[in-house]
């Protein structure tokens, strides 16, 4: 698939899914903006793909995020990938932890999407938005209460965005991967390995599987898919 002439923004592009997605979009011809709160990650990304534009901002800062994202101009393709989590039992989770995870995972997605969608509407050419959710929006894992709740919120936000933005030819979908081993998931390895015997395909997906799904949903080949939460789980949810 090619995205020549398109402009793309990927949040959380310093590591994991986001980094791989940003590199793939650039490879496919899109003028790509990579947003991360970690400048060192952006520096190494820029050294690997010199054509990528980098944005250093923490999505927990609502106003600064709007300012920096607004500088990008019109964006055709948006991937809201940024996310954080911390292991914590429900009974022990402090307010500060709840605020941090909601600020980045949910409010960050809401904020960036709001800025970009307004530009898409003004431009009149439509667009495609993919929100990063998780299979944890449907399945509870011990010590992951806040993270799972934010992802359930992302799934509903996706449906609401698709409903309101559809008349402007803007499609919005979320993807819901099961376990993919990244810096975020490795601390939960013991808990998450319990999902493997419940996975009919007998394995967890690779980062490439997530990247390919995002690229498909961004492309015109998925032109009538909107408002969906697409699981990437090897059949986990049939149990």
TrEMBL record:
Enzyme class, first EC level, given as a word: oxidoreductase
EC number: 1.1.1.10
Taxonomic superkingdom: Eukaryota
Keyword Cell division: no
PROSITE patterns named in the record: ADH_SHORT
Keyword Oxidoreductase: yes
A single GO molecular function term of this UniProt record: carbonyl reductase (NADPH) activity
GO BP of this protein: glucose metabolic process; xylulose metabolic process
Any matching Pfam family: adh_short_C2
Keywords for the protein's UniProt record, in alphabetical order: NADP, Oxidoreductase
Family: Belongs to the short-chain dehydrogenases/reductases (SDR) family.
Subunit structure: Homotetramer.
Name of the protein in its database record: DCXR
Originating species: Mytilus coruscus
